[in-house]
Amino acid sequence: MKTSRKWLQNYFEAELPSSEAIADALTFHAVEIEEVAGDLLDVKILPDRAAYMLSHRGVALEIAASLNLVLKEDPFRTPPPDYPSTGKLTVELEGEEKTHRYMGALVEGVKVGPSPSWLKEALESVGQRSINNVVDATNYVMLNIGQPLHAFDAKKLKVKDGGYAITVRGALEGEKITTLSGEEFVLPEGVLLIVDRNADAPLGIAGIKGGTAAQIDEGTTDLIIEAANFDGTSVRRTAQALKLFTDASQRFQNKPSPALAAYALRDVLALIHDIAGGTLLGVTDVYPMPVTPETVSVSLAKINALLGSSYGMDEVRTALTRLGFSYTETEDMFTVIPSFERRDLSIPEDLVEEVGRILGYEHIPSTMLPPLGTAPNQYRFRGIERIKDFLTERGYAELSTQSFGVTGDIELANPLQLNRPWMRASLLPNMEAQRAFTATVAPRVLGPASAIKLFEIGNVFTNSGEVLMLALGISTEHKKDAPEILKENVATLEQELFGTPVHAQYSLDGTMIEMDLAKVNLEKLGEDYAPVEISLGAYQPFSIYPAALRDIAVWTPLGTEESEVANLILKEAGDRLVRIDLFDRFEKEERISYAFRLVFESKERTLSDADLDPAMERITAALNAAPGFSVR
Amino acid sequence: MGFDVAQGPELEDEWHNFDALNVPADHPARDMQDTFWTKESTPRVPRTQTSSVQIRYMEEKMKEGIEPPYRIIVPGKVYRNEATDATHEAQFYQNEGLVVGEGISLAHLKGTLDYFFKEYLGEESKVRFRPSFFPFTEPSVEVDVWFEVPGKEGRWLEVMGAGMVHPQVLRNVGIDPEKYQGFAFGGGIERLIMVKHSVPDVRLFHAGDLRFSYGFDIS
User: Fold this and answer.
1) Do A253 and B28 touch (CB under 8 A)?
2) Which CATH code is given to the segment(s) A89-286?
3) How much is the pLDDT for A80?
4) Inter-chain contact A349–B164, Cβ cutoff 8 Å?
5) How far apart are CA A410 and CA B150, in angstroms?
6) Average pLDDT in the B54-74 region?
7) Which of A34, A408, A414, A594 could potentially form a cystine with A42 if both were Cys, beta carbons 3.0 to 4.6 Å apart?
8) Annotation: CATH topology of A296-361
9) pLDDT single digits (tens) A5-20
10) Residue A477 has what pLDDT?
């Protein structure tokens, strides 16, 4: 909800502190702030407080409570007047469960025109557009106190028996409406409509958006002003079905109080009278089941038990008073009579939160949990870790891949990637793809190892259920070795760890396997096992450009250490060298041959011969210069 | 600290992922998480939060006749239907914590998290709470942690949501909220690792790229 500091200032005599200070106070006592920009405070209103805080009045109240300021005037604490009724407007509700209240006011003789500059500026300060004085008045009151309102041009309705008639009813099959933004909707049956009963013509989609049929224009003189309360669930479903989300639907779906309509009607009638003139003929109010808030009680003991605090009665009184609550006390029990707009206060815990946040969570002590007598059960988790450690010790690297697949048994209705709409039914497709990818980065990551060994443990989703699977995949320098090595590894796993053969499926070429861990007793595996711990330091990002490889072999005198050779290379290689591995060493005729693989990488680009040749020449020269060394 | 590790299905039914956690159908709180749904006759959801396992764990214990105290953590994969970028991923891991017992309070939550973060991020770290809303906790808080990278200025990081377990959630699994109360917390695991080890992009974690897994200094 975008609010303006200037607008909020209307609620206070004393000057408000800076936007930043307001944001800070709200952050630690009420709600999150999305953005502060000059006078604009974008306040993140979550569903619990939306019924009263999607308004400047609600935010002002929270500022007052958070900063311990006094409100100049709370519009909700002055009861709305009783209006004369009028026979010229009748209202009929079909299906009362979807419309909790409908107030219609008939005003004659207004003059539609541009809004005064203060009103334009107020709307523009929170990102709204000024339309005309009447429409702006309805929007202003909504943004000010949270009640969506709508004004119809009365003369565009049909008069019958000397009056106008409004019905709120479900849309008929195939019924259409063109909204104020010019979009035409073919409405699903049952969508709640505001209808001109005398003409049987839809005037608006209830609680969401008005239609063009009774749109206010320059020639409008008579108004029907609607202040209604539509069922939040019904509005929410319609907004979703039509994909039409408006300021009004956002407010109604959070179920503001039907009592609010009367306050909003009072304010909008006064504002229209001020800026557009006209005379109120009367108000028709259909309010079948008036709502009265129920009291909520909480004891001081309960407050302290939940917060872990040691507040006294006085501190709780302070918090409740700052929030403007009416309450009574009996012994250590506080009974709050929520004002009508506070729809979020229904259980004692709600009051505990109010007290806790206003007094400030920084005062909550930090207390250790008491010790438990029993050992924790982490066996299954540790059993899985044991499998991972077992494989890692045998040269396997772990993969973690995405659970969405190109095929499967269970499809998503709303996938993120249209080419991967399935929940994966097997780990092998990702294993195959990542094994191929790993081959391209193996010299950089694994060095000149003779085999790439990968595993993944993850859930797969099939028609017969969700199962934890273990996949292994191998590739080797000599293709034919892979199936043999994999078979040996699987046998070791089954014999040494699982103690039993498990259900498994090899890939056709025998280089990948997927093993069902459902039958493995993971709890037992983890019973006496402490997972390997590795302490990781900072992450060093890799280049997005491919690494380049260069091999160099050198004859050295007997007694030369590998590190001596490596150091000579490192000194000359430059900072593009990211890895050096010895991949061959042998002795012949009183000499030792060392062969190193050098991996170069640049963060800026793919390296060419021209980039690497100078380094290799320097390395060659440095090695040749060492006594008894000769590059092969 | 005596926490069990609990696990549960990633493809979850609506009851465990939403309703039992006090998030009924058609409630605006459902908009707080972008949810995937399956195309099944009774649609299920790749769980949007590991909180579903709170429910499963408590249901199971109560069925076995085992009343609180409970202490669990739930590390596991969760899913959100949102566009991915360097700080958002449609699949990530959460770690959920749940402690239920007699006299468990928000102060215990603070003590537990303080202890964890001092251990994980360093002695100088500490937590603070800000008011928030989750349907399954009341009061609800956002948890920020103070983190100092050596040589840089310290800062507050938003790391998890938490609160006191809502009495309705306890009732939903048959636990008497007059007798027992508890706290719950949940936050992304990758985000913590990103902060601690300076990982620039969350999408690196589950791309199956060994350059990432091998990209950390071993200290």
Assistant:
1) yes
2) 3.50.40.10
3) 96
4) yes
5) 47
6) 96
7) A34
8) Phenylalanyl-tRNA Synthetase; Chain B, domain 1 (3.30.56)
9) 999 999 999 999 999 9
10) 84
Q: Does A418 touch chain B (CB under 8 A)?
A: no
pLDDT tens, A93-135?
997 789 999 999 999 999 999 999 999 999 999 999 999 999 9
Is A2-67 in CATH node 3.20.110.10? no
B128 → closest Cβ in A236, A362, A377: A362
CB-closest option in B39, B141, B218 to A536? B218
CA separation, residue A475 to residues A29, A437, A494, A582, A593 (Å) = 58, 11, 21, 21, 28
Measured between beta carbons, the chain A residues lying within 8 angstroms of B114 are 366
CATH topology of domain A379-527: BirA Bifunctional Protein; domain 2 (3.30.930)
pLDDT of the residue at A215: 96
How many angstroms away from the CA of B132 is the closest CA of chain A?
6
pLDDT in tens, A398-451: 999 999 999 999 999 999 999 999 999 999 999 999 999 999 898 888 888 778
Note whether A536 contacts B219, CB cutoff 8 Å. Answer: yes
Write down the mean pLDDT value for chain B: 94
pLDDT score for A632: 87
CB-based burial of residue B62 (10 Å sphere; 0-12 exposed, 13-18 middle, 19+ buried)?
Answer: middle
The CA angle B201-B205-B210, to the nearest 5 degrees, is 110
Q: Report CB contact under 8 Å: B106, A446.
A: no
Judge whether residue A85 has pLDDT over 80.
yes
Domain A548-631 coded CATH 3.40.630.30: no
A445 contacts chain B (CB < 8 A): yes
Delimit the domains of chain A by residue range: 2-67, 89-286, 296-361, 379-527, 548-631
Residue carrying the six token digits 């950089």: A444
CA distance A205 to A148: 13
- Best of B210, B216, B219 to disrupt the A interface by mutation (most A CBs within 10 Å)? B210
Q: Of B77, B91, B211, which is closest to A441 when you measure between CB atoms?
A: B211
**How does residue A544 score in pLDDT terms, banded at 50, 70 and 90?**
confident
Residue A240 has a pLDDT of: 94
pLDDT per residue over A161-175, tens digit each?
A: 999 999 999 999 999
What residues of chain B, 12 to 71, have a C-beta less than 8 Å from chain A? 26-29, 31-32, 36-40, 43, 46, 69, 71
CB within 8 Å: A413 and B75: no
pLDDT for the residue A351: 98
Confidence (pLDDT) at A95: 74
Assessment of whether the complete model's pTM goes beyond 0.90: yes
Task: Judge if A2-67 and A548-631 fold alike in CATH terms.
Answer: no
Residue A479 scores a pLDDT above 90:
no
Which pLDDT belongs to residue A97?
87
Query: Is residue A502 scored above 80 in pLDDT?
Result: yes
Smallest CA–CA separation between B31 and chain A, in Å?
A: 9
Which among B5, B37, B135 has CB closest to A412? B37
Closest-CA residue of B relative to A44 is B132
Give per-residue burial for A86-101: e unless 16+ CB within 10 Å, then b: bebbbbebeeeebbbb
Which residue among A47, A466, A541 places its CB closest to the CB of B133?
Answer: A47
ipTM: 0.95
- Window A:148-167, CB contacts with B under 8 Å: none
Residue of chain B whose alpha carbon sits nearest to that of A374: B2
Q: Is A13 exposed, middle or buried (0-12, 13-18, 19+ CB in 10 A)?
A: exposed
Asked if A47 lies within 8 A of B29 by C-beta distance, the reply is yes
Q: Are B11 and A423 a contacting pair at CB < 8 A?
A: yes
Contact A100, A229 (CB under 8 A): yes
**C-alpha to C-alpha distance for A327 and A339, rounded to whole angstroms:** 10
Give the DSSP letter string of A314-358.
HHHHHHHHHTT-EEEEETTEEEEE--TT-TT--SHHHHHHHHHHH
Strand ranges (E), A481-613: 504-506, 512-516, 536-539, 548-557, 577-588, 591-600
